[in-house]
Amino acid sequence: MQIPLYILAVLISIVLIGGFWPGRSRGALAAGEMDSAGGIIRAIVGLPVYLLGPIAVFLRHVADPTTPARPLVGDDALEMPPDLQTTLTNAESALQQLGFGASVRMISHAHRNVTSYGALLEHSDGCTIASVMAARTKQGITVTAILFRSELADGTPVMTTNVRSKPLFPDRPGHDVMSFPGVLDPARLLALHRFRVRDRVGGAAPRPITRAPDPIAYQVREANETYAFMIATGYFRRTRTGRLRPTLMGATCMVWRSKFPWAQIIARRRGRAREAVLARCRP
Hints:
283 residues, alpha+beta
């Protein structure tokens, strides 16, 4: 069924690109004018990204759960890029000033051509875990982020992050996740996280969580749960060697979620929710 679905998705994209390509005047849209020839031309111009992008991801993307995170020690620590080292150190220092304890660093090569460095810290309140991530591709693209996690009494995770990357995957059911890309101050981000947790639990306290007794195992477990979700949604399939490769549907969704119009639709929906929280939780 993947090929027919892919063709259907391409046909939908032609309609969307042709009818709503940026630059179409509001007056024309309001008047219901449809320039069929112009719409087809715009669709054809935009098609290579929609067609070739998913094919490239389908053929090249690999995730390898068989090479999970490991402690960042020895040669791994020595080979860590100085700027990423500084990023982790500064974030750890800022978090420890906010009541978080000792940091456990790790490294992962679970994704092809990407080296991810991370740190896990646990707050003295026993209800908040902080993750710091600094990843770099072989092409030199760098992504850094902080994520706070707490859990409600029923086990529902509430996570607040400042990751800037576009969301390529669907939200996991039962997970309350919100990103504030413009919030770089860890103290402000933690305040937003605690506000969101209080908003969910009311007067009750979130349940205790811990990375102990093995922080690396905790991180691996979190990653494996994410992989299982992506397989269940049809985005990935497991190969005979245990690696994960995207399905054609998954590759298509991952690419298209980062392109017009899907990226704008997702950004607007999440932006409205984010602004509502910012309006209620002022510095």
